[in-house]
Design brief:
38% of the residues lie in helices and 17% in strands. With 340 residues, it is α/β, with parallel strands linked by helices. The strands form three sheets. Strands 10-9-11-1-12 form a five-stranded parallel beta sheet, with helices on both faces. It binds (2E)-4-fluoro-3-methylbut-2-en-1-yl trihydrogen diphosphate and iron/sulfur cluster.
Length: 340
């Protein structure tokens, strides 16, 4: 093959890491194990993770997704989603004597603890994140009198604090690293004593998926990000791909949402998926691409992940009492691999 023809070869660059993170895996398995052990229905406050397919699949198996605790019958079993809840939500669940299982990702809980600690020390806490997102509501709810949400770099000028010498920033776990750093840079211009959080709040999974898509984006005519519209980390991957040089980038829930026009004239297509996305949906996209001649799939790996969180404490106790197993193989050995 000459170099002239090889540049016309249609190929897929498949990002790795992609898909399920440790917090999502734990939360989804928690609902599955609760259904298996206690039987349906199991109530879940909000979407367990922001993925349509996951929510539909669990609904079919007997999970009932509600918006608030007052929709759950007194004394019933309720799972809190991976995005976390405020103390007020915990209190309202306790007031209804709900049997709760807390599937909040431990890395979200870590940010909650930071908010509590800095509020106790009477800091003004600038929470970089998106107003209305469940994680932001939960974190801000830990210290509503001390937290103000900063949505973007452009909002920095509107921030007012009581004492510029006592200000700290923390963040939502699923933001764009680059945009967040720009927000911090502008905040620090205004408040030079601004304190950093004790460790990164944007989690390892969010960071790893952004690094991987950044690596493949400059070579791509189009990047397809598998993920749902309300998935912050998935939507960020589209933005990051474009900023890193992809000619175009789109988010789809599944292959049927791919517009054939996106592929016209394309020779290199990047594929990745958000942290809440089961691998089966990526396989579905790869199958469609293969049908359009994109049958050369090359993995672009920038990190390996082996983190796994133990199941929520209340569930482990329940499984033990029921004589059921709380063990599960690592997600990598459970997921169907995209390539033969
Ligand atoms: O919208 P998002 O990116 O925060 O959530 P998603 O459920 O898509 O991914 C998992 C991230 C969680 C639970 C927040 F840490
Ligand atoms: Fe936890 Fe990060 Fe996954 Fe969110 S994206 S559930 S913080 S590991």
């Amino acid at each position: 093959m000459t170099s002239g023809t090889s540049t016309l070869t249609k190929r897929v660059l498949l990002a790795a890491p992609r898909g399920y993170c440790a917090g999502v895996d734990r939360a989804v398995v928690a609902v599955e194990k609760a259904l298996e052990t206690y039987g349906a229905p199991v109530y879940v406050r909000k979407e367990i993770v922001h993925n349509k397919y996951v929510v539909e699949t669990l609904s079919e198996r007997g999970a009932i997704f509600v918006n608030e605790t007052d929709e759950v019958p007194e004394g019933a079993r309720l799972v809190f989603s991976a995005h976390g809840v405020s103390p007020a939500v915990r209190e309202s669940a306790a007031a209804r004597s709900l049997d709760t299982i807390d599937a909040t990702c431990p890395l979200v809980t870590k940010v909650h603890k930071e908010a509590v600690r800095f509020a106790k020390d009477d800091y003004d806490i600038l929470l970089i994140g998106h107003t209305g997102h469940e994680e932001v509501e939960g974190t801000a709810g830990e210290a509503p009198d001390h937290v103000q949400v900063v949505n973007s770099p452009d909002e920095v000028d509107q921030v007012t604090v009581r004492d510029p010498a006592k200000v700290v920033w923390i963040s939502q776990t699923t933001l764009s690293v680059d945009e967040t750093m720009e927000t911090v840079r502008r905040l620090r211009e205004r408040f030079p004593s601004l304190q950093d959080p004790p460790s990164d709040d944007i989690c390892y999974a969010t960071q790893n998926r952004q690094v991987a898509v950044k690596k493949l984006a400059p070579e791509c005519d189009v990047v397809i990000v598998v993920g749902s519209a309300n998935s912050s980390n998935s939507v960020r991957l589209v933005e990051v791909a474009l900023q890193a040089g992809a000619r175009s980038a789109y988010r789809v829930d599944r292959s049927s949402e791919i517009d054939e026009a996106w592929l016209e004239g394309a020779t290199t297509v990047g594929v990745t998926s958000g942290a809440s996305v089961p691998e089966i949906l990526v396989r579905d996209v790869l199958a469609l691409l293969e049908g359009r001649g994109f049958d050369d799939v090359q993995e672009v790996r920038t990190a390996t992940e082996d983190l796994m969180f133990s199941l929520p404490r209340e569930l482990r106790a329940g499984l033990k009492a029921a004589g059921a197993d709380d063990k599960r193989p690592h997600k990598e050995s459970r997921k169907e691999l995209p390539l033969a």
